Amino acid sequence: xxPILAALAAVATLGIAAGPAAAKQVKLTIxxxxxxxxxxxxxxxxxxxxxxxxxxxxxLVTTKPKPRVAKLTSAKYVxxxxxxxGAGGSQHYTIKATGTGATAFATQYQEISxxxxxxxxxxxxxxxxxxK
Length: 132
Hints:
The protein is mostly beta strands. Mean pLDDT is 85; it is low at 5-18. It has one domain (22-131): Immunoglobulin-like (Sandwich), CATH 2.60.40.2020. It has one helix and eight strands; from the N terminus they run H-E-E-E-E-E-E-E-E. The strands form two sheets. The protein has a four-stranded mixed sheet with strand order 1-3-6-5, with no helix packed on it. It has a four-stranded mixed sheet with strand order 2-8-7-4, with no helix packed on it.
């Protein structure tokens, strides 16, 4: 009886060990502009871009991912550590890989009233490939 129980315990342990891998999070910054990100279904992509909502500029999503491949689940501005007037912060986006295939995500730092792009690095674009 003990050999049978030992064999069943071994099979159960193998089943647990061979289960799906835990979802991971890929963190991106403005330095990753133009990147091709490869993730697995269930993974998330966390993007943090420098921003300052005390100026007339903000990040505006210009290309959302295809929902059958990935979904934009969060977009929020986070104030920086300083409470001084004019202090900047960062724009955070979270994208969840929901299917398989390829898609894109793009956002642009633009003037709120006119839509004109900001000076310097004003676009952030990535290509996303979701596997399995």
